[in-house]
């Protein structure tokens, strides 16, 4: 196994303290939004000696990935593991299907757009289903409400914009009506002016203060979004979406096409190895709402919570309905400082193991490594079964 240095992403919405604290490093006053552990070519993790993980895999895919994974995923590590720490709301976004991503990536390549071009939507040819397991209380928006429930939340706000949205949903309480309402807010041709959005925010605040809201939580979220993105139509779009709160250890899966925005908290996130994000608003980054509307699903759906399943006495797994990744959590409670016991860690193939608490000893037939919190290792498929001892907790990303 090989020690792995994650790649830090300093996006504006990140916490200035959560990730430095997790990594045991000094905060520098800048936002630390994510740490990437994986082989995505935009930000591959590094092995000792400065070798990038994607280069190491390309040099010997059969040993690092195993025959089955190498064949199924064309000699590429199919998952990307992250620590994510939003202090401010992320963009309102969706991820494309694999087919749409491959077609659009090829089209942008044919158009001569560089991978780092600000006019690009697609950084690779892959889909990006993802799952988040909360490490702290974590809040988000995910998926559309039923049209009737959304209409009830819009009713009585008394602004021109909310009256128009309410009328659309009452006349057509189906997915078609919801698509029309959402298009009214975000499409380039119908996007409302900032003044109209500010009227909606004022109405939500007044309703909340009067204690008359059918959803006090969504009215609070509208005010929060408006503080960071005043006048953005994505603020009003929150009235159509499901608010989500995850407690530590709870998980949520986000499939392709699901509209979502993470708001606040710290979590472990695992996804297919992609950076394809289509944004509709709530961001200074590139917004292409018309492209996003081609991929978004407006079908009413509650957030897809994933319950952990017990694998053995020390490990639980969060199974997502995809072939690209699987995430497990292992908690060991051996006496302090004792590494004599060994506990089997379920899983096989290429794995990334990330220390979350305490300190554990990882062991395969090929070697051993002491893993403290905030550090990660890559375990090649050729290393075989993994065992662990000590006192701590770690996450393991692998392929089903």
TrEMBL record:
Keyword Transmembrane: no
Annotated Gene Ontology cellular component terms: cytosol
Cited Pfam families: PMI_typeI_cat
Active site: 279
Domain of life (superkingdom): Bacteria
Keywords linked to the UniProt accession: Isomerase, Metal-binding, Zinc
Span of domain Phosphomannose isomerase type I catalytic: 3-145
Name of the featured protein: mannose-6-phosphate isomerase
């Amino acid at each position: 196994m090989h020690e792995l240095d994650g790649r830090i992403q300093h996006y504006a919405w990140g916490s200035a303290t959560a990730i430095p604290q997790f990594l045991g490093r000094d905060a520098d006053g800048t936002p630390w939004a994510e740490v990437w552990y994986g082989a995505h070519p935009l930000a591959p993790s590094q092995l000792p000696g400065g070798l990038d993980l994607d280069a190491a895999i390309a040099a010997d895919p059969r040993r690092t990935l195993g025959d089955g994974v190498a064949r199924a995923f064309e000699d590429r590590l199919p998952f990307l593991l992250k620590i994510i720490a939003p202090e401010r709301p992320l963009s309102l976004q969706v991820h494309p299907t694999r087919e749409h991503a491959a077609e659009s990536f090829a089209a942008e390549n044919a158009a001569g757009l560089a991978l780092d071009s600000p006019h690009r939507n697609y950084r690779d040819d892959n889909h990006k289903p993802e799952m988040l397991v909360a490490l702290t209380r974590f809040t988000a928006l995910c998926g559309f409400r039923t049209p009737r429930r959304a209409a009830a939340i819009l009713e009585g706000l008394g602004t021109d914009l909310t009256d128009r949205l309410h009328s659309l949903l009452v006349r057509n309480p189906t997915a078609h009506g919801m698509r029309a309402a959402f298009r009214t807010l975000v499409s380039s041709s119908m996007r409302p002016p900032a003044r109209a959005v500010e009227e909606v925010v004022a109405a939500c605040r007044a309703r909340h203060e009067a204690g008359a809201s059918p959803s006090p939580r969504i009215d609070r979220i509208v005010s929060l979004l408006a503080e960071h993105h005043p006048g953005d139509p994505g603020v009003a779009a929150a009235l159509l979406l499901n608010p989500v709160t995850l407690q530590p250890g709870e998980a949520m899966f986000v499939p392709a096409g699901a509209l979502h925005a993470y708001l606040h908290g710290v979590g472990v996130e695992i996804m297919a190895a992609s950076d394809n994000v289509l944004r509709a608003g709530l961001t200074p980054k590139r917004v292409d709402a018309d492209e996003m509307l081609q991929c978004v699903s407006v079908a009413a759906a509650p957030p897809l919570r994933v319950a952990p399943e017990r694998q053995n006495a020390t490990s639980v797994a969060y199974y997502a309905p995809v072939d690209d990744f699987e995430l497990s959590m292992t908690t060991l409670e051996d006496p302090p400082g004792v590494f004599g016991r060994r506990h089997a860690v379920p899983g096989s193939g290429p794995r990334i193991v990330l220390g979350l608490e305490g300190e554990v000893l990882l062991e395969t037939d090929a070697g051993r490594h002491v893993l403290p919190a905030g550090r990660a290792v890559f375990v090649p498929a050729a290393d075989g079964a993994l065992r662990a001892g000590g006192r701590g907790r770690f996450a393991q990303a692998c392929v089903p």
